[in-house]
Amino acid sequence: MSTFDTFVSAYGPISKVDAYGFLDSLAADSANSAAASTSTGAAVPRKHGKVVLVTADTPLKASRGEGKTTATVALTDALRARGIDATAVLRQPSMGITAAGSKGGASGGGKASLKNAELADWGLFGEMMRIATAQNLIVSLAEKALEEGKLTEILLPRVSEVPSKALRKIAVAGGNIPEKCVLSPTSEMMQIVTLSKSMDELATRIGAMIVGTLNGKPVKASELTDVERIVTVLGDAVQPAVLETEQGSPIYMHCGPFANVSIGIPSLVSVEMACARHDIVFVEAGYGADMGAQKWLDIASREFGAQWPVAAIVVTRASTWRDDPSLQWRYPFHIQRLENVGIPSFPLLNLWEGEDDQVPSLRAHAKEQGFREPIAGNLFRDGSEALVSQLDEFVETVSASSAADLAAKVPASTAGQGVMGKLKEIIAESYGVPADRVMEKESFTPSLAAAAKMASLSGFSVNDLAVVPVKSPATMTDDDTAEATRRTVTLKKVEIHAGAGLLHVNLTTSLTTAMPKIV
Fold this sequence. Notes:
This protein is an alpha/beta fold. It has 3 domains: 47-115 and 245-409, Rossmann fold; 127-236, 2-Layer Sandwich (Domain 2, N(10)-formyltetrahydrofolate synthetase); 419-507, Formyltetrahydrofolate synthetase, domain 3 (Roll). The chain is 35% helix and 19% strand. A 9-stranded mixed sheet has the order 1-15-16-5-17-4-18-19-20, sandwiched between helices. It has a 4-stranded mixed sheet with strand order 21-23-24-22. A hairpin with a 5-residue loop joins β15 and β16. The longest helix has 21 residues, at 127-147. The N and C termini lie far apart (48 Å).
């Protein structure tokens, strides 16, 4: 019986896994690398899997993807067909934008799909709703505290899993109390679940959430309620789901932050658990390499100790890469940016119907750009069969890496470094815009000063927070069609997510809203 078969026999093919308890059992194992017991008592040998990041080109439109999930499923199936114990960790969809059909599902497509795709696309086990409820309960307690004079202002937004323009700006108590509402994936509670690696950490982070102010002084969630009540409301939303592909490959799915307005990665605990169970773990990072991949490297790995990727798969449609001459620079930029930080990056050309005859010219174009040999195929139509024979170089590259090599590549934490220094480093490396072309709106400096004061009053420095760029998913700069020497990035405002340990910084002049335009 394979490792995954043993795992499934314990938990079931579509089920929840107590990842916190599972990892605690591994840590408690006196042999450390010998057999570890699951909560059901089944012995499963521990592995030390390597992370491969699946990211993509910046999409031409915010409402469409490049096929990361389809590619991730096909790659997992293809490696397993070659006898390699591979898996993938996917992000959960938001009913607001994904399951509504504006951007495809979260379960792949065609022959590269998950079993029970409708379950994955339409709420899975209700995690999104539990996360929304948990944060909404804190906001309700804040409203009561305001009535009692314990708060003078509410800062924590309410959460809705279903988008509505009417919720972008709201007021309660007869219009006297302004509030706002965000989608579940963008909420601070989602970020906390994504980043927490234990129940204790989860409770601590929830308690540190800044709910509002009392005469200018921040008030935390722990000052309004027993945090354990909120943890109870979350319930099994903190547990990853175990699913399978149509080909029987194991897949984990947990958490779903949007990469443009949040951190865009699956939960750290789900990835760590997958690495303990499998040899290669594909990690899906949201939208393009300028968002999901940037945040896996700079936030998950650099600041929160997640594994540095051994390689990257950069997915693109032919139409995204080549059809708009003014934007052709973006795909080569993404691949080179990852190569520059020591991550071997493999182009994956996700073909659509009628594009098979473009493969020779696409390969020639890739060679001109200095890419590694592209992996190409119509993954919806052919699934893993399109990839099995193309993965020799990829497998050799992944096999050649060592844990010591990966550890040496992780940059030092930016904790304590000034916010502007962090921002300019991200913008230069991930968007190709140097520090002298980083602009500031008039509102930015006062916004940063207010955030610094709020952090200080809360007992920490704003410089200790990891920076989360918030921007349009379809643009990297203020104008991506401009000449390289004229591209700029504009800083707009900042917002503290103290419980998550993050500082959101709105970038570019593009409209960014937590509520999709589809309704």
